[in-house]
Amino acid sequence: MSAGVALASLASLAPAGPSIPLQFADALIEFLSPTTLVDVILRGIAEASLYVMIAAGLTLVFGLMGVLNFAHGSLTMLGAYLGGLVLVVAVAQSTGGVGRLLAFGVAVVVAFGALAALGGGIEVGLVRPIYDRPPLYQILLTFGVTLVLDELARIVVLFYGLQPTTVWQDVLGTKPVVLAESVGAAGVSVSGLELFQILFGVATVVGVHLFLTRTRYGLYVRAGGEDSEMLSALGVDVNRVFTVVFALGTGIAGAAGVLLAWDPSWGASVPLAAETLLPAFVVVIVGGLGTFRGTVVAALIVGLVDSSMTWWFQNFVDFTGLPEMVVFLVLVITLIVKPQGLYGVSEVGGH
Amino acid sequence: MSSDAGPDSNSDASVDPSQDTGESAADQSSGDGPSSEERDEPLLSLSGVETYYGDSHVLEGVDLDVYEGEVVALMGRNGVGKTTTLRSVLQLTPPREGSVRYRGEELVGRDTHEVAARGLGWIPEDRRMFGQLTVEENVRVAVPDADDADAALELAFETFPDLRERREAKAGDLSGGQQQMLSIARGLVGDNDLLLVDEPSEGLAPLIVEAVAEALTEAASDTTMLLVEQNLPLALDVADRFYVLDHGTVVDEGDTDAVSAEGERLRRYLSA
Lengths: 351, 272
Description:
Chain A is mainly alpha-helical. Chain A has helices at 2-13, 20-31, 34-65, 72-90, 97-127, 135-159, 169-172, 177-180, 192-214, 216-226, 228-233, 238-261, 272-287, 292-317, 323-337; strands at residues 182-185, 188-191.
């Protein structure tokens, strides 16, 4: 049914031409040409890398503690501003590419550290006292934290003479030239930024995977996600594991924010909080609440669907507003066909 | 705390006083273990433990002692508070009144992980496997010091060779018997001085029950155990002493040598 709706909307939006099927065939041939396909796939993977970074913390926290952290997007936004601040301070006009990348590394470390500390504080001070309450309490609490953080960010940003709702352009200006350019080979051109994002996303996935599978804490996280009471009866301080994971999750959100601050289609701004929270939720729910593997696969699916649809809407339908809707269509279809998500155990709301 | 169950039985007037025959009373006194004056301080001592689930008053003043090296069976019908007693010891369901002492130290008010770290292991009723983790990981998570993990795995696989073949399998994919073996193995490798074992034979095929009983007997040779078990012959076989719970209090206690699975003394508390 949804495919029918999509086709109908495609047909109604397509410009009047000789014949829609013919146009479609032309577009399909172009879409399937190696250069377009590689371009779309790389774009999709780059997008997936961002999604995975935005969603990783959310899924780790939900998987272990069953807490849906609505403040996650705001923490990403704070990371973007904080990392942006480091970049703006550290990078001068004359700073070379390597220097700018080094500054980015420092910004990531600062944002990760500061957000991890903030996340740890939020867990200990606010979330811990209400673990035993129904999930609604945690949702309301973290939603409240979002309102407070966003408002604080708005006040601070205004105080320093910046527009809270528009992207902080100075940060975009600290990007090294190499990331703003496209790298070309064999007819395929990829933007340096996309490659950088892919690199960062892969590093995050590998890092989190190694943490979960190779470290003792990772073992506790996986065990605690299944049965935290049993884990505590085995002598593990589950509260400390909760704090560490919450801090790690918010730290990754902060690092993701720094990466977004260099991307002109995101950028550091207060609305970034909501802009990142929605896709993060989509990815986490499609993948299955609390499974990191599901989050990675879902991020790839959403990224690739989005980049494909963006191409189609630009080249065939000639209307650029709709691709984002497709992301939510993925969510709706998942909820209908597989409510527990791709790899999830519990259904949404059933935790 | 006295090892005499008399006051408890009398205080709970609703517990079949009519059935308290002179014979069983005599059994009780003769069946008691050595009095506390004759023994060292108990390893675990509960006194006046009162535990609630919400408004539901489950334990209404439980007194019991477990001495180092012995296996104590905790018996009683379903719903009398056996599992709650174990949960109260571990502070999973902390008592509102009373005292739980381990090696003389008060456990009430401590976190569960602190209690467990003192050497108390739990082999829970419903096994509580980490189903998404492998057999090996389930064992590893129970070992306090990661350096001891290999030795712990070897101990687990020696005790239950079935598990060795399935070490890479997810615990959730094991049979009920294998899961129980893994649950016991997890308790054995945890460097525990006192094991709280809850219904280890429940729902298992007779052949598996034998393996489980063998493992428990083996474990009992160097570990103290508080064992909740409905399977009376198994309980009497493994345990040195017993307590019977009814309506949240101890109504009988004694040496397992002094009673039999067929005898009236235990039957009247255990049959529905």
